[in-house]
Amino acid sequence: IYSRLSELIAIRRGESAFHPDSQAIFDAIGEHILKIVRVAEIGERMTALFNFSNKMQTIYGQTLFGRELLSGHDISGTE
């Protein structure tokens, strides 16, 4: 548990959008999805999507590109 927690903390420290002074934008998408966008002073953006239902959700009109921080996999388009 400790080693995985240490890895997660290192990932967080490596992203300027997680700085406490970064702008945070909260948005509800439908009934079950919370979207949080963090924007660092240097313009780096991070988007987090949280599903608060027991089922897979589809988000329409949202095209995201980037990298999934925990797995390191690239995200392109509508994945």
Summarize the structure.
The protein is of the alpha+beta class.
Indicate how many domains the architecture comprises.
1
Strand order in the largest sheet: 1-2-3
- Number of helical elements: 1
Question: Could you say which overall geometry the principal axes of the C-alpha atoms support?
Answer: globular
Helical percentage: 10-25%
Tell me the strand percentage band: 25-35%
Distance between the termini: 29 Å
Number of strands: 5
Question: Main β-sheet: number of strands, strand sense, barrel status?
Answer: 3 strands, antiparallel
Question: Regions with pLDDT < 50 over 5+ consecutive residues?
Answer: none
Radius of gyration (CA) equals 14 Å
Secondary-structure content class: alpha+beta
Mean pLDDT: 88
Helix and strand succession? HEEEEE
Task: Describe the 3D structure.
This protein is α+β, with helices and mostly antiparallel strands. It has one domain. The chain has a three-stranded antiparallel sheet, with no helix packed on it. A two-stranded antiparallel ribbon has the order 4-5. It is built from one helix and five strands. A hairpin with a 3-residue loop joins strand 1 and strand 2. The chain is globular and about 35 Å long. The model has no long low-confidence stretch (mean pLDDT 88). It comes from Klebsiella aerogenes. This is Sugar phosphorylase.
